[in-house]
Design a protein that fits this description.
By secondary structure, the protein is mainly alpha-helical. It is built from 13 helices and no strands. The two termini are 16 Å apart. The chain binds iron/sulfur cluster (SF4).
Length: 228
């Protein structure tokens, strides 16, 4: 997997185009305006399992209002928590959320750990969510690759095959994403990519004509052929 399609100069231009677009089109979410590690952890945990953003914002607000810290969440009444997250169809995840908060209390003194391995050890937290927390809440230069960003990378670099499911291929994609990030700006770069994928580089119908980075995109250059 290579970034040879992009010279250093075009990489910088891609970054600038993406940031300019993000300034005008970035989405506003409560966990972005007040990105405490706990807020981002809750938001990313919910985002893992739903794409219904309007409902998700409501549910997120109710969770952080009712349980403003991990300690409150660790003591949550399960049926109350189930009711709060049920609008997302996630009632069955209530125990996992409470267990996660409990782990934060027992093992991390009520704080969200700033450590990839420790985050992944929390109940229900995978590699993507752990990276998202480190990048979006702690401001670390950490690439994040969910299915949408993986698709973006496949299209941008004209990668062949289906979206990756094996660990080695996933790692290669994360490394590729990491090489695109301007040093010290991973948070905004990752947010911009997530928003571009949600609004422009969509799964079924990418809106290439509206896309700020189309001059660099292999998929666009080939007329929308050959990439997932
Ligand atoms: S040009 Fe099209 S395929 Fe390429 S990144 Fe933009 S929206 Fe996605």
């Amino acid at each position: 997997m290579a970034t040879t399609l992009l010279t250093e100069e075009s990489k910088v231009e891609l970054q600038e185009r993406l940031f300019d677009w993000f300034e005008q089109n970035g989405r506003n979410f409560p966990w972005r305006s007040q990105p405490s590690p706990y807020a981002v952890l809750i938001a990313e945990k919910l985002l893992q399992q739903t794409a219904v953003i309007d409902k998700l914002v409501e549910v997120y607000n109710r969770i952080v209002d009712t349980y403003p810290t991990p300690r409150f969440l660790a003591n949550a009444d399960i049926s109350t928590l189930e009711d709060i997250i049920q609008p997302l169809g996630l009632g069955y995840r209530a125990k996992e959320l409470r267990d996660m908060a409990n782990e934060l209390i027992v093992r991390h003194n009520g704080e969200v750990p700033r450590d990839l391995k420790k985050l992944i050890e929390l109940p229900g937290i995978g590699d993507y969510t752990a990276r998202a927390v480190l990048s979006l809440a702690f401001g670390e230069d950490m690439p994040v690759v969910d299915t949408n960003i993986a698709r973006f990378l496949y299209r941008m670099f004209g990668l062949k095959g289906t979206l990756p499911s094996n660990p080695a291929r996933k790692r290669a994609l994360i490394e590729l994403a990491g090489r695109l990030i301007p040093k010290g700006h991973a948070r905004n770069f990752n947010l911009a990519l997530l928003d571009l994928c949600a609004q422009v580089c969509k799964a079924n119908k990418p809106q290439c004509i509206e896309c700020p980075v189309r001059p660099h995109c292999a998929y666009y250059a080939k007329g929308g052929l050959q990439c997932p």
